[in-house]
């Protein structure tokens, strides 16, 4: 796996030699990571049945929002 900026490139090649012949099996995919993904924490794995899993940690900062508070004043007569 290679990461360049926010692009992940997964590449795997294997020489398969069943019985009397051989062939090269190759897999290559590129994915764009979300902007808030911490690239140093991204990992990938390919299962035996060919499922590619890419995992990572998002650097999520809490949103700061203004929440209006309604204050009611009651008059005492």
UniProtKB/TrEMBL annotation:
Pfam families listed in its UniProt record: HSP20
Domain SHSP, residue spans: 24-59
InterPro entries per the UniProt record, alphabetical: A-crystallin/Hsp20_dom (IPR002068), HSP20-like_chaperone (IPR008978)
Protein name as annotated: SHSP domain-containing protein
Organism: Clavelina lepadiformis
